[in-house]
Amino acid sequence: MPPSKIPPSVPIFSRMGAVYHLLADEKERTVQEQPLLLEIAAQAQQATGCNCVLDLACGTGLHARLLGQAGYSVLALDFSDSMLSQAQSLRNPRCVQYGKADLLQPLPVENPAALTLLMGNTLSVFPERRQLEAVFCNAAAATLAGGTIFCQTLNYERIRRFGSVLSVRHGRIDRHETVVTKTLFVLQNGRVLLNISACQGGKNSEWASFSECQTLTPLVPKEIIRAAKKAGLKLVADYGGDDKSPFDPERSGTYLSVFEKCVLTSR
Description:
Layout: H1 17-24, H2 26-48, E1 52-56, H3 62-69, E2 73-78, H4 81-89, E3 96-100, E4 113-118, H5 129-141, E5 143-154, H6 156-162, E6 164-173, E7 176-186, E8 192-201, E9 207-216, H7 221-230, E10 233-239, E11 254-261
Parallel strand pairs: 1-2, 1-4, 2-3, 4-5
Antiparallel strand pairs: 5-11, 6-7, 7-8, 8-9, 10-11
């Protein structure tokens, strides 16, 4: 489908870069996610002979830094200037580069990657099926034949069981006491509302706050697999967590899917 006919993406997290890394709890996520991430990266490098990684919707750059520290050459792209600014302000290996990109448009990639990441529930931001398919098509076009695309989404069946999920983080950013909350709430139409709010202390005990919200598409595994298949990708593994446990719709917190870009063979 021509890019001009695809609805534009929504600029979520436009002001959240400065506080998002507190909400994400990068130390905890590193412990949980690093082993599987490095395992998949090593397999992709072995399959293609290439150590290039493309991190799409990179946020504040957690996965890009983890892979850069392991020696991979990483191009990390995001649509949010705020997220990119925060990512670039952190200590990054020299082999990590950042840039701006809209995932619904052809990606500004010179060299295809052995491994492309679509982490952090990125796929759920797009409300229409054709947008999801466009994201996969653009990701596949930027990935080497035989390469890997690794996706991470929330398990929405579990969220529906609870009706809402609340996360709260407290800490200091630039010496200011900060509280960040993330709420996921199931709406009457079946979609899920994501709200992120930040409160930060200032001088004279005064506090300032701001928030952003976005409706998310409650994707199920078969929808992700179908969209990936249309982009020429083949599911090679899926899990219900970073410990590689089987996906359980009632218990798993996330759905992890690993796709391979099929190698075209001449007849």
